[in-house]
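Following up on my earlier thread - several people asked me to post the actual chain instead of describing it. Fair enough. Here it is, all 363 residues.
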Amino acid sequence: MIECPKSAYDRLANSGIMRKIRGKRKIVESILLGADISGAEVYGIFDNASREYENLVKGRISEEEELYKNILELKAEAEKDILGINLKESLLIQHPSLLAFAVLGKKVLEFQKFGFPSRRSLEESVASFCLGEKHEIHQYQDDYVWRNGIFKNIISNSNHGDLYFGQIDVSGRDEKIQTLFGIEESFDTFKDDASRRNANAHHDCWGYFLGSILKYAQVMEKTNIPEIKNWRNALKEVGSNLTFTAEAEFGESDMFHDMLLTNLESQSMMNEGKIIETFPLHIPGQRNHYPYISKDGKLLYLIETEDGEIIMPVNEDSRLAKIKLSKYIEYDENDLPNLLRGTYKMFARDRRLLPKIMKRLVA
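Reply from S.P.:
Thanks for posting it. Predicted structure:
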């Protein structure tokens, strides 16, 4: 999977190109979906590139010639597929001129006006954004996605309502280097090996996940943010991603709700430097994830590992005393609004539980 690193993402945002990409959603989506090039818009780009390339004065290499050449090379590679035209992700990043031209036209040749050191850096940045940020392109959105610093965060659920939250490292090299021509910018324009960490849990774990976020907000003294103080308004704004299950229609038992709420109230969030007397709050799943607040105020979700650097902060006589934990996913207080909005939107399966949690945990 291709991701747009922070270095390229920020330049696209600051230059206004991100807004232009959204404005060209239809043609970009056609390309990403591998639409047949006989489609009017996509075919028009190839046809125009071929015509312009033939009309160029040959003899010296120019940016314009390289632009059209890259588009035509992509067309030739795509046509080799025995099943027909196939605009695969690998081709679109190897030949990034197509997506960049679809968004900017000949303005791609004015790369310096957009704050990019080269045409190629602009093209690859546009292509990696389109490929990695599909939620920005498609009209529908199954996941809740946001960025904060070097992380791209995702909250989602399955058709059965199972909890999923993940984090992708979108950091990238961004530096100024000394060359024969002076100081030049050098930065990563795409990332095809981004570190991904995914947490999967059962459908009945949404309450524990929401509870951990609310308890973190309490420790950080952030309970007055709109997403908590006016949580019903936030819920209306984000809507809900419904699941296709009988449980979602008929709900779960009040006994289950009471048990979960009692557990949430009695279990404690682990906080660095403090011993907890009760059982630690955790999110059971394929691997248990333990929410933990670090000394620098970050919300960490820890997993058990053999060489973990964090020892469960419980009394020595506890059966959990020697469990070793390592950081798996991390958030900070700037993530709180999106963490809450994403959880409100994806909360499954019985959404009657959500207001009960808010009532019991929010003063």
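Residues 40-55 form the longest helix (16 residues). That should answer part of your original question.
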